[in-house]
Amino acid sequence: xxxxxxxxxxxxxxxxxxxxxxxxxxxxxxxxxxxxxxxxxxxxxxxxxxxxxxxxxxxxxxxxxxxxxxxxxxxxxxxxxxxxxxxxxxxxxxxxxxxxxxxxxxxxxxxxxxxxxxxxxxxxxxxxxxxxxxxxxxxxxxxxxxxxxxxxxxxxxxxxxxxxxxxxxxxxxxxxxxxxxxxxxxxxxxxxxxxxxxxxxxxxxxxxxxxxxxxxxxxxxxxxxxxxxxxxxxxxxxxxxxxxxxxxxxxxxxxxxxxxxxxxxxxxxxxxxxxxxxxxxxxxxxxxxxxxxxxxxxxxxxxxxxxxxxxxxxxxxxxxxxxxxxxxxxxxxxxxxxxxxxxxxxxxxxxxxxxxxxxxxxxxxxxxxxxxxxxxxxxxxxxxxxxxxxxxxxxxxxxxxxxxxxxxxxxxxxxxxxxxxxxxxxxxxxxxxxxxxxxxxxxxxxxxxxxxxxxxxxxxxxxxxxxxxxxxxxxxxxxxxxxxxxxxxxxxxxxxxxxxxxxxxxxxxxxxxxxxxxxxxxxxxxxxxxxxxxxxxxxxxxxxxxxxxxxxxxxxxxxxxxxxxxxxxxxxxxxxxxxxxxxxxxxxxxxxxxxxxxxxxxxxxxxxxxxxxxxxxxxxxxxxxxxxxxxxxxxxxxxxxxxxxxxxxxxxxxxxxxxxxxxxxxxxxxxxxxxxxxxxxxxxxxxxxxxxxxxxxxxxxxxxxxxxxxxxxxxxxxxxxxxxxxxxxxxxxxxxxxxxxxxxxxxxxxxxxxxxxxxxxxxxxxxxxxxxxxxxxxxxxxxxxxxxxxxxxxxxxxxxxxxxxxxxxxxxxxxxxxxxxxxxxxxxxxxxxxxxxxxxxxxxxxxxxxxxxxxxxxxxxxxxxxxxxxxxxxxxxxxxxxxxxxxxxxxxxxxxxxxxxxxxxxxxxxxxxxxxxxxxxxxxxxxxxxxxxxxxxxxxxxxxxxxxxxxxxxxxxxxxxxxxxxxxxxxxxxxxxxxxx
Length: 981
Description:
- This protein is α+β, with helices and mostly antiparallel strands.
- The protein has four domains: 42-98 and 306-485 and 514-565, Alpha-Beta Barrel (Anaerobic Ribonucleotide-triphosphate Reductase Large Chain); 99-300, Alpha-Beta Barrel (Anaerobic Ribonucleotide-triphosphate Reductase Large Chain), CATH 3.20.70.20; 631-783, no CATH class; 797-927, no CATH class.
- The protein is globular, with a radius of gyration of 31 Å.
- Its EC number is 1.17.4.1.
- This is Vitamin B12-dependent ribonucleotide reductase.
């Protein structure tokens, strides 16, 4: 039964209409940024442009009438996909199609069996992305690594190597436009290189790809039965591979090797559990259900996976906002207006069919494919909110029944409208009624009345339905209604949006509220208790998410974009079973997201109101590590950065400069500055320092590294932390003291060394700008497990040391890391470096770098020291490069060229953190806060705020907090929403 609705004693404060809601500021901002063109400012101005553009396809004497109807359909809830909204009716040479699938052959450039060679496919993909379309590919035709290439008498490098070429091309094309070029890479489960593919993104490779494994029914049966599978390809193996057991089957395919299916499945599941990729596509289910099973084979999907497509197939998408069809929301009389919904769906079908005529096609083959089959994808958005407004809890059977009914209405309206269009304009050229309406495919299961109509009138579109993610279009056009088929992720969150240089830089904050939650508060007031129907995605079981997909899927002819978000502590066995059950339920694929420390480390907990001090405690036993007791956990430190990375400043920025005069010569010191905005403007003054650098041939070696690491400290919202750093540099002594003139009067002061002198000048400028004022937040200071360097008792402590030899500069010294043990909640310990130092022949400026990094090491969040060390890896210096061993955990012995002594030292420190299990070898966190302790439960009511979660780096704020939510990228730190829908 449905969840209880409102207390009958409550009455609405205003009419039960979404139109009565004032607009959210974020909606207007997203509209202007993403979709409005020229002088457009209002929703209806964008809608009218789109309506006119699509009505141009109609007969001249009908265009005015269809413009009115298309505008009306949009006002009543139809939202065309983002590409249509942003480009239709403009002079842009951009496609109106969101995504494509394009074929990739095995040759380098030759067309074989109608499939373009690899570099021809790359050119086609680049052209498609240049015009704004994302691309999916099946790379299974490419021969395995090591296979024989007879034409060149060489060995193949395998599909993953070519995926890297596509990845870099996408990155290059992306830089030329505002929209990121999304890609999906698919490889069949029986390809010999499948294991390399599964792990291709483990170390951060292929950043411009989503990846999915194409899984067959035969493979799944082998998994369940404990059997082995053959990894096969048409390409001839090398002699070495033949000698290792490769053989040719009767069907002509070569079996490169056999492997237990369960072992391969476990690799897929483990990688997905740890990295959120690869996804899984059930290829046989996709093709068996395909309306055009008789004339095409599908092997890949578009990047968000809601459209399995043949070569050159396209996603022509649009969604209907379900919240606009709920009458008398939240009341016992709440109901869904089925008749109006069906009317809007019918008009929307015609609009999407017209898109196929109105759009420019990046490639002729795409246009030909679209004309032959006329695929479109009508879906809905706002299901989660609509169910709340109908007093139905998302995880209840009545909610699933309502979703089934809505999906059935959409199916019948779209197929009926397409049959009417076929009678008016003609059926798609490859339509064959006998084959189309039989064979166990989707169309064969349509109601008999619809089948009779289709047989009599034909069908305009081979496929009509797809539930896609609606990220930014939901924000701009649907008052942030819940995305697609999803429940609301949260009822409110703060969006921190980066401002352009023309706007003064920095960030602007917006309160972003869910539509249903806003409407409820608007109608009943802030104090009214929420009904039980208000449930968010993270409050639901994973099985509840999957059950909703299973309820709706029988009514959708292509696919559904649905991300099952599970908590970090979700058991692996249950996680793996989700995919097995999805296959058993007949689903076409599944995508999950589990926040974890492999993807990135984040902590989002409220610190104690009055933090207790962190006290060192000597541990019993001679020679044992000193231990510190951690009394409280801070917030994630990376979130405290005023500028997460160097701001993008195409117009440049002001910088204050000063000549540092020391005994060995002079060099210039620069302090980069930016205008302060928001609360910073009043607190700190008009401008703030955000970086320092030195320039000149006489600068001491190693000083540039000091400036580089100090620059990130300037970007924190913590004046006390910056003072602590500058204090640490003030006493760095070198061979001899010297006097140097200081600003503003040029009065001489005695300094123990050039690092101290440089720090003094930086301090003077920071004080002038008001960046060192007392008071204000101290997020980095609060995150330290020890402000002072932990001192040893007479029992001593352990340390890690390594020798560094740079023959190019004559340096030979020892790097030493002092370490301390921190307790875990389970009673164990974790070892962390707490200070570093050098002894021997080394540039004395490195003492300054050591003091800075020692303080960084005592910040609990390991993302902080990891970020500092990664930024030093590319520090170069003239004639300072040298060859040295590459540190690694697997015992591999190899050497490489390092750009400087500093870069090599940074790599060694990262390696020690990797040895301790705190960072990986790339300097990214492996454990939360380095204490092996999970975040505390949020104190706020469920769903009332987004809690930061571990994820990938966010392009907006730089935090490793971007997760995959509702088919879109979503940053749980700043609220950034990626391009989708």
